[in-house]
Design a protein that fits this description.
- The chain is an all-alpha fold.
- It is built from 2 helices and no strands.
- Helix 1 packs antiparallel against helix 2.
- The longest helix is centred in the first third of the chain and has 27 residues.
- The radius of gyration is 14 Å and the shape is elongated.
Length: 65
């Protein structure tokens, strides 16, 4: 469980970094970086939800929805 909790923390941190990269790209009008950042951000949201589901957190439905 510790490994999963550690992965969750890393996923959240990396997700937040991609959010920041999106904001920087948006300020600079870099649409390609915005797309990359948005894609990676959304992927990490899925990782986060899956790990929370594995840990059995209340209120987390199946990661498939």
């Amino acid at each position: 469980w510790e490994d999963i909790e550690h992965m969750l923390g890393e996923a959240i941190g990396t997700r937040d970094e991609w959010r920041q990269r999106y904001e920087v790209a948006k300020r600079h009008g870099n649409s390609r970086m915005m797309k990359d950042a948005a894609r990676n951000y959304k992927a990490l949201e899925g990782v986060e939800k899956t790990l929370r589901w594995v840990l059995g957190e209340q209120g987390v439905s199946t990661p498939l929805h």
